[in-house]
Amino acid sequence: MRMAELSRASGVPVPTIKYYLRAGLLPPGERTSPNQARYGEAHVRRLRLVRALVEVGKLPIATVAEVLAALDEPASPHHVLGVAQRAVTTPRAVAEGETRERVAQRLREVAERRGWTIKPDEPVTEAVLGVLATVNELGHTHLLDQLDRYAELADLVAESDVDTVVGLPSVEETVEQAVIGMVLGEPLFAALRRLAQLNASAHRFGDPECDPECETSGS
Amino acid sequence: MRMAELSRASGVPVPTIKYYLRAGLLPPGERTSPNQARYGEAHVRRLRLVRALVEVGKLPIATVAEVLAALDEPASPHHVLGVAQRAVTTPRAVAEGETRERVAQRLREVAERRGWTIKPDEPVTEAVLGVLATVNELGHTHLLDQLDRYAELADLVAESDVDTVVGLPSVEETVEQAVIGMVLGEPLFAALRRLAQLNASAHRFGDPECDPECETSGS
């Protein structure tokens, strides 16, 4: 198909497609004349993925390029997941000094109980330590007390994450779906958790704004 | 204490404190002369909270102001949580047309099974629908198949979230800790889930980069 059809099929405007081509996020089409090229279903698929990573995943273009490069490398799903995870993880706070020692020790204990391997200096490890240090500084000790429970639930969520990509017919599909799940699974679970929080807090603290019928589920 | 001491105690630079005062994120100190004011422990506490919401929660200043206004209103924890949740939730994608119908129906079924009340037009509902629509468009049906399981786990996480603020001595403390938990609990759980994913994917797909000792937990 021509560029205009590719745009219609993917829902991505032509100038954006040209930008993605220049940025290397989309492989060039098959050249049919000096200024025309032909694109296929693989381009439609890739464009949808790029749009999801950029618009919903909120990833910077350079990060999307890194993630796509990992996808296009022939490697094990575990390897691709690791590359993608490092690319998409930006620690939000830095844990330093004595506080760092304290929260790192707490994380080591939790990891030991869960059988997790914690690699030091990984962005994801820094991300956990940074948030823990901030929570610690704010004196929200009850959140830290629940760390084992959160880690246990994170294990169950991660099991489901892996379940969504097990048994797919090819390595390519497995890694693509794994990356989609990693990037979109985060806002999805965060939004579900907020729905659940509203529900749980209405149950525990009561909902004075709510008339009886709003207690009915699914209304 | 004076502004300089407030800065040392909170770790927030003086120009930033002045900016927060002008933006109304911090109540003015007690004026002791035309150009001097005295600040107390409440200011230190509030500054640490503002910093966490801005730097770790990545909330825009206007959103932080809304959340703090809700905190300072005398109201039930459930009410404050609702205001804070609406303030911090920005749907990342819009679900439209036929896809919207399909994913909304799916969400209604899940909510029914979980006993959740889904209020239409709430940002959090739109957030769930937007991600589901994107996942649907990408054809990641396995993720949608796991929606009930994710909702079930979201309920368990939300129970733990509520547990962290139950039994606190005052309403003020309860709502402050609830907001901290809501804003910081998200990056914390996301990072724990990624640690768990790496672990789960190494188990399921093997980790060819890893020598035997890196299988040991807590190393």
Automatic annotation (TrEMBL), chains A, B:
Gene3D superfamilies: 1.10.1660.10
Domain of life according to the entry: Bacteria
GO molecular function annotations of the record: DNA binding; DNA-binding transcription factor activity
This protein's name: DNA-binding transcriptional regulator, MerR family
Keywords, comma-separated and alphabetical: DNA-binding, Repressor, Transcription, Transcription regulation
InterPro entries in alphabetical order: DNA-bd_dom_put_sf (IPR009061), MerR-type_HTH_dom (IPR000551), MerR_fam (IPR047057)
Transmembrane segments: none
Transcription is among the record's keywords: yes
The UniProt record lists the keyword Protease: no
Gene source species: Amycolatopsis arida
CDD domains: HTH_MerR-like_sg5
PANTHER family the UniProt entry points to: MERR-FAMILY TRANSCRIPTIONAL REGULATOR (PTHR30204:SF69), REDOX-CYCLING DRUG-SENSING TRANSCRIPTIONAL ACTIVATOR SOXR (PTHR30204)
Annotated HTH merR-type domain residues: 1-70
